[in-house]
Amino acid sequence: MKIKVFSGSHKGREGNTLILVEEFLKGAEEAGAETENIILIEKNIGYCRGKFECWLKTPGMCTIRDDMDDLLPKFMASDIVVFACPVYFDNVPAIMKNFIDRLAPLLLPHFEEDENGEYRHAKRYEKFPKIVVMSNAGLPGQTNFEVESLFFRRLARTFHTELIAEIYRGEGEIFRGKSNLMLKLLLGKYKKMLRCAGKEIVENQKLSEKTITELEKPIVPASLYIKFGNEEWDRLCEENKVD
């Protein structure tokens, strides 16, 4: 099984979402998957021009020559693709949305009605990779991911495939608190569950209810996270104060 992660954080390898991805992939690799994590900020990906040239002039191929020439085949050669990104103002970051816009050549321009009576573009290929979503938010709580969840569910429908797992983690900044022994123990337990999730996706193409429940539990109480988070922001504001 081939799993490709497309990591869409503007922080690149310094983002908190990458910590989730690395643990998930460890579990997937232990279960025998061939994996690759592609950091989108490190790639040259231009903006879609919206001229439909990938449907009319060069069917199935974008006329913009950049790293999407390599990424589109990687996407389609995958059994599972993981969209991994933080939440920026209740939705995916610009770099992730830009990458998704550039997937347009994988579809046909023609319209069709789906099994629910809605409309979408027809598929260019017989089979598309299944989708997993991993996302991190600085704020606590699962409600931060409501827009992203709907977006990726709709995206799976658009690309004639299944969204087989969603892993959402609030309280993102606790991943930076490695010096605290108790926090380190709590994070260790959560990372173990991420590795279990990676294995389950390879072995079962889905997550068990037990794993989902464990992954969605708060790592620390929201009130405590907010308290220490605001204290840290006060410290940073004071530290960066301009005279």
TrEMBL record:
Cofactors: [4Fe-4S] cluster; FMN
Keyword Flavoprotein on entry: yes
Keywords, in A-Z order: Flavoprotein, FMN
SUPFAM superfamilies associated with the record: Flavoproteins (SSF52218)
Domain NADPH-dependent FMN reductase-like: 1-104
A Pfam family hit: FMN_red
Keyword check for Flavoprotein: yes
Family of the protein in this entry: Belongs to the SsuE family. Isf subfamily.
Protein name: Flavodoxin family protein
Organism encoding this protein: Methanosarcina baikalica
Phylogenetic classification of the source organism: Archaea, Methanobacteriati, Methanobacteriota, Stenosarchaea group, Methanomicrobia
